[in-house]
Amino acid sequence: MAQGDTRPDRRPDWPATGAFHGFRQGDFDITVLSDGHITVPIGIVAPDGTPADRAEVLAATGDPAAGLVHYKTNIPVLRRGGEVILVDIGSGAKYQPSDGRLEQTLRAAGIVPEAVTRVVLTHGHPDHLWAMLAEDGRLRYPNATYHVGATEWDFWMDPDYRTAMPDVLHPFAEGAQRDFGAIRDRVVMLRPGDDVVTGIRVLDTAGHTPGHISLEVAGGDGLIIAGDVATSEIVSFRYPEARFGYDTLPDVAIRNRARLLARAAADRTRLLGYHWTYPGLGFAEPQGSGYRYVPG
Ligand SMILES: [Zn+2]
Hints:
By secondary structure, this protein is of the alpha+beta class. The protein has one domain (21-295): Ribonuclease Z/Hydroxyacylglutathione hydrolase-like (Metallo-beta-lactamase, Chain A, 4-Layer Sandwich). The chain is 24% helix and 29% strand. Strands 1, 2, 3, 4, 5, 6, 7 and 8 form an eight-stranded mixed sheet that branches. Strands 9-10-11-12-13-14-15 form a seven-stranded mixed sheet. Bound molecules: zinc ion (ZN).
């Protein structure tokens, strides 16, 4: 069974009881699982942040002594009839020691990997993709159809990535080529405006990566599964037009982040953020020149 996180900041990655957060959205039953957390240096989270902003982010969501922000990894599973849909799959044992827990939390929620019918990938970064293969090299979700943004696929599968991408991205490209390559014969390419299934629509939120997508789930005032369009529940909301150090196309990322938050605030659309404090659900409320994240 899933256990609570006992690391020093005492904020668990998921409920210690294993009672995962569940809710109804439209005609989907959604449960938020977790892959654990990753650590990100504060200089990446808030490269232009003030010392006060940085201290606040570290105190609320990280380890101030180490200067590391703990980015949780909230992974929704959406169920409707026979459909069991995961949005992103975590990193397996291939990225950081504090993540790679999704299969464990999925089983704790009573779902076996073989039951997953679809996997949607918001983008090709390790903390979202690298759990593709189990330790024995087979697909961890062997019965799933995989849905990937066409632009994202083309970016990472570039055979000339060594010359086309900066050195820092080469390990990510190698991992993406390994994992995308493993689903080559069962992938469905997505474009903005497509429906994954009825009630789940693809939104263009490029910038964090060139083909990053978010998903809008129909019902009520809507739910947007945002992925990494706004990675910090504090500074991404307060300063939507500030840089985030891991965005590949910063100007595009800023434009799409500002646009998404403005829309979510205006429409009172609920957001689910991959890296926010579990379960990563809340609203953007206008505050100053930006927004405030209100869990709910
Ligand atoms: Zn991420």
